[in-house]
Specification:
single chain; 164 residues; mainly alpha; globular
């Protein structure tokens, strides 16, 4: 009897813990004019990697206009600068620039992403930066700025289990 009570209590706690996990939100996909903006963003990324003098300004401007409400705009400068530090002088293909632009669109437009989804984007961006040869020291600030943008775009509600 005593083992059954303990087992039931443990099972109940496990079920409650699983139920507390934040559900994944919808992944935003660019459509219409937004798709053109993401293409422009990929071109800006290639220009940053190539060391173009105007590339940082263009990247900052285009990052700040991503997403329906442009709520990530205040953090666009920091993210653009950290991307510049990671990408300048690196060889990038158009496909790699497109992948990075797609992920950056998700960061700026994803107003309902779960923490797990944000971490997945950070992981993809980090892997892509390593793929193009970015120094490890430059990848951390990009990851931090992704979280910073998401804090503005997706303030979410803090729940008691987020504190634990």
């Amino acid at each position: 009897m005593r083992i059954t009570c303990r087992s039931l209590t443990l099972l109940s706690l496990l079920i409650l813990a699983a139920a507390c996990r934040s559900p994944d939100g919808p992944i935003p996909a660019p459509s219409g004019e937004e798709a053109d903006e993401v293409y422009e963003l990929s071109r800006d990324i290639l220009n940053v990697a190539g060391g173009d003098a105007q590339a940082l300004t263009e990247l900052t401007d285009d990052l700040g206009t991503q997403g329906p409400l442009e709520t990530g705009q205040p953090r666009a400068v920091a993210l653009a600068k950290s991307l510049q530090g990671a990408l300048v002088g690196r060889q990038m293909s158009e496909e790699q620039a497109k992948r990075l632009a797609d992920d950056l669109y998700i960061v700026f437009a994803g107003d309902k992403l779960s923490p797990g989804q944000v971490q997945a984007v950070q992981t993809r961006v980090s892997a892509l930066l390593r793929e193009v040869g970015a120094p490890e020291g430059a990848i951390g600030p990009v990851r931090d700025n992704i979280v910073s943008v998401q804090t503005l775009v997706n303030p979410g509600r803090k729940r008691w289990w987020d504190i634990l």
